[in-house]
């Protein structure tokens, strides 16, 4: 057991070391672009849009469309107030998703049908774009020759519970997807982050757009895989200082959100992953302290090192937060419990 855990950490550490150098981070540049549509699906996002709309409006986009997906909190009023001051911003009134559609996918499909841009940039309402973000995205799309492109924002975490769970996104990405694989004939090397996902219009139409993933709860990853299956060039980058997001408002919110995303997994697979995460990240510490094999010691140290390297690359809270790594797997157990339910609940909707 200790040997398997050590190999797991060695593989992850190798991936992290490669990505420290190879995984690009967005940086300010001065460059032109193509006609761009920023598309924002929004359901009960009034508070977030008050914070993030100014950043969207600071970008040199040709149009910014926000779809109000049946909100009950004044989302439409917030958008309308900003639209009165900037003609590029337009409110699109959503309709209930047809049978078989996930709400966000239907909203994105509607937005794409309204958009006129050559570049379609889907952006969640919780994402903050700093000045220069759109130019940096376009520059990196050109540099990577990407037809489908996704950014992993720097995740802002304000509570202890968020700091336990949210960094796992970056740690899995950087540990197990070396960026050079995106240029290799390895179709399985594909992922994306739906918080910011851009398509050249021709590529979006070729792969079927969101209609092709109508019922997918984890639509971003499925879209990335479809892109590679259709022979399209997939590009990825970290948001750095230019693109940030606060996904969840605390531990309970994070448990519900991650549980929804994992709901698409097989039950046996989810149970196996939950157990393995505890074995790989938490067990090495008591095993080492109780005089276990040397492999447990190395696994424990590499576990801390993996979180520290991830934080160094993404520019998060730095090295002290790495000390939470042994607790993260145990804190994530409720996430798997939510994912094992027969229905997923999100934004007031239920999905079987």
UniProtKB/TrEMBL annotation:
Ranges that cross the membrane = 322-340
Q: Where is the Glycosyltransferase 2-like domain?
A: 37-151
Enumerate the UniProt keywords alphabetically.
Glycosyltransferase, Membrane, Transferase, Transmembrane, Transmembrane helix
One example GO MF annotation: glycosyltransferase activity
Q: What InterPro entries is this protein classified in?
A: Glyco_trans_2-like (IPR001173), Nucleotide-diphossugar_trans (IPR029044)
Gene3D superfamilies associated with the record: Spore Coat Polysaccharide Biosynthesis Protein SpsA, Chain A
**Entry superkingdom:** Bacteria
Asked if the record carries the keyword Transmembrane helix, the reply is yes
Q: What is its EC number?
A: 2.4.-.-
CDD domains found in the cross-reference section: Glyco_tranf_GTA_type
Q: Which Pfam families does the UniProt record give?
A: Glycos_transf_2 (PF00535)
Record-given protein name = Glycosyltransferase
Q: Where does this protein come from, organism-wise?
A: Amycolatopsis pigmentata
> Lineage of this protein's species?
Bacteria, Bacillati, Actinomycetota, Actinomycetes, Pseudonocardiales
């Amino acid at each position: 057991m200790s040997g398997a855990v050590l190999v797991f950490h060695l593989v992850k550490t190798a991936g992290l070391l490669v990505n420290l150098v190879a995984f690009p981070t967005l940086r300010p540049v001065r460059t032109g672009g193509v006609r761009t549509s920023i598309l924002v699906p929004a359901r009960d996002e009034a508070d977030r849009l008050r914070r993030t709309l100014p950043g969207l409006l600071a970008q040199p986009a040709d149009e910014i469309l926000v779809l109000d997906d049946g909100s009950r909190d004044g989302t439409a009023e917030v958008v309308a107030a900003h639209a009165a001051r900037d003609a590029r911003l337009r409110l699109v009134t959503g309709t209930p998703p047809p049978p078989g559609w996930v709400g966000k996918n239907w909203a994105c499909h509607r937005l794409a049908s309204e958009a006129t841009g050559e570049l379609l940039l889907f952006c969640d309402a919780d994402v903050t774009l700093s000045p220069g973000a759109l130019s940096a995205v376009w520059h990196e799309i050109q540099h990577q020759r990407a037809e489908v492109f996704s950014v992993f924002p720097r995740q802002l975490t304000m509570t202890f519970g968020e700091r336990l769970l949210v960094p796992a996104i970056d740690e899995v990405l950087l540990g197990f997807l070396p960026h050079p694989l995106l240029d290799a004939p390895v179709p399985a090397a594909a992922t994306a982050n739906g918080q910011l996902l851009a398509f050249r219009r021709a590529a979006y139409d070729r792969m079927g757009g969101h209609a092709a993933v109508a019922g997918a709860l984890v639509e971003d990853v499925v879209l990335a895989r479809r892109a590679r299956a259709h022979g399209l060039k997939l590009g990825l980058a970290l948001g750095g200082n230019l693109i940030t997001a606060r996904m969840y408002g605390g531990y309970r919110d994070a448990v519900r959100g991650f549980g929804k995303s994992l709901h698409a997994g097989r039950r046996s697979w989810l149970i196996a992953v939950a157990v393995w995460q505890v074995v790989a990240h938490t067990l090495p510490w008591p095993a080492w302290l109780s005089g276990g094999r040397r492999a447990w010691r190395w696994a424990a140290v590499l576990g801390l090192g993996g979180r520290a390297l991830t934080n160094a690359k993404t520019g998060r809270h730095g090295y002290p937060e790495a000390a939470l790594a042994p607790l993260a797997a145990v804190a994530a157990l409720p996430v798997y419990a939510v994912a094992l339910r027969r229905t997923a609940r999100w934004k007031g909707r239920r999905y079987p």
